[in-house]
Here is the input.
Amino acid sequence: VQLQASGGGLVQAGGSLRLSCAASGRPGRDYTMGWFRQAPGKEREFVAVIGWYGGASNYADSVKGRFTISRDTAKNTVNLQMNSLKPEDTAVYFCAARRGGTAAIYGNQYDFWGQGTQVTVSS
Here is the structure.
């Protein structure tokens, strides 16, 4: 599975962005798709995850209620709708894929990674 992330940009605090991750090659029924982010000088951190088949999802506490992960199995895409953005959401966002359940919140549990897309939130 190859992943291509897009949709990043510059937005003011309180604004919204929608990230998309296109998968070339259809993820299997047991695949999980995740979003991670890495801010300058910080370690990569988990943002959200969704099961490709059943659609069960999980979120980091820092984004709950503001971000929504979804998948379109017909288009082989995973989206991250980000609302009420804060300056601390500024980071490079990566999509990732793995075979396994939605409890995977660590980067080393994932097998495939996209190239990342920059999100910058100004105050």
About this structure: The mean pLDDT is 93. The chain is about 0% helix and 50% strand.
